[in-house]
Amino acid sequence: MSASHDDEIIILLKEKNIHITQPRMFVLQMICINCKQVFSAKDFIATGQHIDRTSIYRILQLFVKSKIVNKVPNTKGIVEYTLHQDFSGKPMFSNNRVYMDNGKT
């Protein structure tokens, strides 16, 4: 992860008034690196990082509340998440770049 990319993540967290922590940075970095269409908490837990399951779920809930990701319930009963999109359909993260919406969505 490049320094400028980390800077963009920090800017996004600050614009959303989210306190910057290593676990939150890690989750956003994983989202940027993988750029998967849909992901679950298990995707982050499986990385082997020293972040407990509860923290992962709390971070994802915070990101849902802050409109960084959206919850996507499925028929299996597993909550998955997708990157938040603004009204133009542009995702917050695309091609490993972070797009700011300045809270206007």
Briefly, what is this?
With 105 residues, the chain is an alpha+beta fold. It contains 4 helices and 5 strands; from the N terminus they run H-H-E-H-H-E-E-E-E.
Kindly estimate the percentage of residues that lie in beta strands according to DSSP.
15-25%
Provide the low-confidence segments as ranges: 94-105
Write down how many β-strands occur, each being a DSSP E stretch of 2 or more residues: 5
Major sheet = 3 strands, antiparallel
Distance between the terminal alpha carbons, to the nearest Å?
Answer: 27 Å
Task: List the secondary-structure elements in sequence, H or E.
Answer: HHEHHEEEE
Please estimate the helix content.
40-55%
Secondary-structure-derived class: alpha+beta
Task: Give the number of helices.
Answer: 4
- What's the mean pLDDT score? 77
Strand line-up of the largest beta sheet: 1-3-2
Rg value: 13 Å
The shape is: globular
Q: Helix and strand layout, with pairings?
A:
Elements: H1 3-15, H2 22-34, E1 39-40, H3 41-45, H4 53-65, E2 69-73, E3 79-83, E4 93-94, E5 97-98
Antiparallel strand pairs: 1-3, 2-3, 4-5
Structure description:
- With 105 residues, this protein is of the alpha+beta class.
- It has helices at 3-15, 22-34, 41-45, 53-65; strands spanning 39-40, 69-73, 79-83, 93-94, 97-98.
- Residues 94-105 have low confidence and may be disordered.
